[in-house]
Amino acid sequence: MEHIAKTRDRTPTPPPDTYYDAEAEVRTRGTGFYAFSKDGAAREEEMEELMKARKETLGERDAATKKKSAREKAKEERRRKIEELRSKRRAEEFLNGLGDLGGIGYDAGKGEG
For the region Disordered, what residue ranges are annotated (predicted)? Predict the structure, then answer.
């Protein structure tokens, strides 16, 4: 029993609050890495600033997406209108190209048969 007591884990339960220590890491960190303070109050403030910046970024991204979709919609409307005008012009050219049909009874000026 004494042997078990000696080998028992003596760390406090529950363990104290510890934060990630970026300087203790050997690995390379990426572009988005943010080294928060080890002080709890400063850490909370940094996290709030980061979340505020994130919300701002998401808002700007959403506004840009809406603006882009409005531009695309206007562009598509212009394309549709241009195609409509082209098809009208082609139809007129086709009808004018037919010319006189040899007295069938159609008068292109009146539009009746």
Answer: 1-20, 55-79
Place of tokens 């042997």: 3
- Domain residue limits, the chain: 2-74
CA distances from 21 to 27, 31, 35, 37, 48 (A): 12, 17, 8, 9, 19
Nearest CA to 35 out of 26, 27, 46 is that of 46
Task: Please report the pLDDT score of residue 12 as a whole number.
Answer: 67
Higher pLDDT, 108 or 22: 22
Q: Compare 29 and 98 and report the one with higher pLDDT.
A: 98
Structure tokens given for 34: 């943010």
Query: Could you tell me the two tokens for 53?
Result: 């910046």
- Residue 3 makes CB contacts below 8 A (sequence gap 6+) with none
Residues 6+ apart with CB under 8 A from 37: 43, 46
Place of tokens 């040899």: 102
